[in-house]
Structures are given as structure tokens and as C-alpha cells.
Amino acid sequence: MSRFNLAIIGGGLVGASLALALQAGAKARGWKIVLIEPFAPGDSYQPSYDARSSALSFGARQIYQRLGLWQAIGQRAEPIKQIHVSDRGRFSTARLSAMEEGVPALGYVVENAWLGQCLWRALDKEVISWRCPAEVTRLQPLEDGYRLTLGDETQLDCDLAILADGGRSGLREQLGIGVRKRPYHQSALIANITTSEAHNGMAFERFTDEGPMALLPLPDNRCALVWTRLGMDAQRLAELDERSFLSELQSVFGYRLGTLRQVGVRHLYPLSLVEAEEQVRGHLVVLGNAAHSLHPIAGQGFNLSLRDAQALAEALLASTAPLGDLATLQAYQARQRLDQQLTVGFSDQVTRLFGNTQPLVALGRNIGLLGLDLLPPAKRWFARQAMGLGTRSDA
């Protein structure tokens, strides 16, 4: 039976980022790491009009720079130079600017396939081995770690298991780790859009009585659309023909980018706020969407998970205790608690505030948006949240 120091269950963007953050220190310590992933990454990056994307905060760029990966990622990262926030049918707007914040960009939009390729190519095969395609079907706690049973009934043991297998983690449920779930009764419609006018690095956050939408800049003058609507209405939009869909989107978004010319494949995702009731046990960490799944409109989910992964790597590499030591893992969780609480709270409150159609609430948020644009301290705070720097004092 194989024995590893760390087993990362889920080799997606979060799991691979953790592996990269651990890599140099693991090599120096002689640790063996295994990444277990059911879907094999492609051998090369293939451009696609319909590629799914992630919004990386400026804080995420800083993490990848420290890991030596940003130069590669940046080759196909579209900078967000401004963010335009508006409330449909009301007069106030707010604008955030990278120039005002003294940064090259407030964030970046990167195709997941490209980010994945950059991560997987950077992993050292002498330190990190792959089991792929493979799936963990059982996790059995041992006195000094965990025993993992794979789909082909092979087994391996590890000192520390990292559960990063997504928001619908069956292993989390198998281990009896409960979740706090707050359904939004909405679905996110995700698609790529082509506009007649150049986006020039502008991202749009537009709130409507039917739900919020975001339009984020992509390479090749495409935009990534995240359109949140009630479940049945989202399904209706997903089934419209292209011309009817673009017409309805145009009526809601307006002509800030000219005429909407093309929409790609549309995907629907039901939305809930999900938080694991436990993120650490002895020899176990729950990470990524398995730990917390957020509403996508504020673009904070992956960025928070990346900060978690970086903090966990730092905690493990700084500790002199045996790998999987509960006190070390609890110290990591305590360090991240404020960041998680503020980020989850920020995302949830923005979603709820702008999803409320009551006239007094609508008036209040309209005044709030106007104040945000007029009050530099408030604007600075909001910008730092958007950039993933909200709990840091050194940036």
C-alpha cells in the first residue's frame, strides 16, 4: 500500500494551487504529495469561444506572483481597469478605477482552461504525483492519518487529507460534516458575449429588480456574462433562441458596449450559500467549494479559496509538529476566520441588498451607491474588498 504525506482530493484550480504553494517546501522536507482528480487535464491549451472563466482579484495576482506563476497566467489574463456599478431604473452609479487605487488592474479575467494549464505545467513530478482519472470513494480515519479507497478499490494512506472535491462533496457528507445552506432561489446563467464596441477593460455590475448581472472583460473583445434570475425565468432565458436572448439582454444591460452581437453556449447553475460546519479535523482539511460556496455576482469565491490555500500552505510549512497535527490546522482556521467571515458576509449582503425590491430599501441602496462614488473612504473600502485585500494591512 502506498503512503503519502499529503493527499489532495480534487486536482482542480484550488487543489492544484495548494500543491504549487506547498511544492518547494515539500521538496526540501522530502514530503510526497498525491493529487487525485477524476477528470484528466488536457495536454495543451485549446482556445474556445465558450471557455468558462474566473475573475482573479488583484490579491490573487500577488499570490501567483509569489509562486512564480503570474508571468505565464498573465499572457491570457484580461485586466479589469474599471468597475461600473449601477442599479437599473435609478439614477446613481459608482465607478472603481485601478488608476485611483494605484494598481495596474483591479482584477483579471482568466479562462479556467488556461489557468489550469499554467498550474499543472508548474507542478514538479518529483514531489507531486497524479492519480488521474481517479476518484476517492471512501475516507477512513486512522490514528495517524487517513486511508483512501479509490474507485478501482486500490488504497493509499496519508498523514493529511485535503478535501477539495467541490461544493457537492460526497466525501464531506460521508464523514458526517454538516453544512449550513441558504438557498437564494436563483440560478446563474453563464455565457460569453461579443459586443460591437470594445470593452477597454471595463467590468459592469448591474443590479435589477429581477436579479443582478455582471459583464466581465475577456480577451479577443469577448465578455463573460453572469446573469442571475429566479430559477424558472433563468431556464426560460437559457432556452430562448440567440436573437431573442440577445434582445432581452440588451434591454436590461443597455448600450454601454454598443450592440450585443453573439452569445455562446449558455449554462445554468442553481445558487446557494453553502458553508461547511467543520473545516478542520485531525489529519483533515476541507478546502475550496467544499468549505464554502458563494454567490458568483461579487466574484469572491475562488479568490477566497486561493487565500485559504496559501494560508494553509504557510501554516503547514511553518509548523514543526507532525503533519496533520490538529493544533496546527486549528491555527490555520483561526487565521482565516476573519477573512472568511468578511468575504462571505460581503458577498451575501450585496446579493440580498440588491435583490430586495421594497421601495425604501431600493431608495437606501440608491443613496448608498451615490455615497460610495462621493466618499473616498467608503470607495476605498469597497475597492479593497473587490481586490481581495479587505483583511490585509500590508497592502
From TrEMBL:
Domain FAD-binding: start-end pairs: 6-338
InterPro entries according to UniProt: FAD-bd (IPR002938), FAD/NAD-bd_sf (IPR036188), UbiH (IPR011295), UbiH/COQ6 (IPR010971), UbiH/COQ6_monooxygenase (IPR051205)
Keywords: FAD, Flavoprotein, Monooxygenase, Oxidoreductase
Pfam assignment, any one: FAD_binding_3
Record bears the keyword Chaperone: no
Cofactor: FAD
Pathway(s) where this gene product acts: Cofactor biosynthesis; ubiquinone biosynthesis
Biological processes per GO annotation: ubiquinone biosynthetic process
Annotated GO MF terms: 2-octaprenyl-6-methoxyphenol hydroxylase activity; FAD binding
NCBIfam families: PRK05732.1, Ubi-OHases, UbiH
Family of this protein: Belongs to the UbiH/COQ6 family.
The name this protein goes by in its record: 2-octaprenyl-6-methoxyphenol hydroxylase
Organism: Pseudomonas batumici
